[in-house]
Design a protein that fits this description.
It is a single chain. By secondary structure, the chain is mainly alpha-helical. It is 64% helix and 8% strand. It has a three-stranded antiparallel β-sheet with strand order 1-3-2. Strand 2 and strand 3 (99-103) form a beta hairpin. The chain is globular. The relative contact order is 0.12. Residues 159-165 and 167-171 have low confidence and may be disordered.
Amino acid sequence: MDEPRWLDEDEMTAWRSFIVTSTLLERCLDQQLKEAAGLSHPQYEILARLSDAPCGELRMSDLADLLLTSKSGLTYQIGRLEKAGLVSRRTCDSDVRGVVAALTDTGRERLRGAAPGHVALVRELLIDVLDRDQLASLAAGLGQVGKRLRQDLHETSGAATGAEIQLPEAT
């Protein structure tokens, strides 16, 4: 068995910085959304993806792929959003086995109310902290990692089914 390629000091610093920052950022965004709009960050992302979709609706399998979540995890979140009147579910017109999630008018209004505070916090905690060169480097670096992860995922799972996972492309 080969000896692992241990991280050197700079690599460990980068890794730990990424883990700590991404965890803190997620916690802050989730807390702000819960306080301001009564939504978790995953619920906000569901509403945002539905809002961006044609007619405000997507097949559940496609939505799960876009959100990088399991179908069961998405079903749970959609159930909570449906109880709150923010989304509805129906059978897919082209495939009776498929289920479509649709943004309701109430959901669109909740998203519209939550978005300004959410984007302000994203800007405050990440975007405005970095200068343009740092932002470009961050986007390029994470884009490269995303490209590698997409390749690995595609190779291990074979031909993709449903919607392709959408990660930013490396620049």
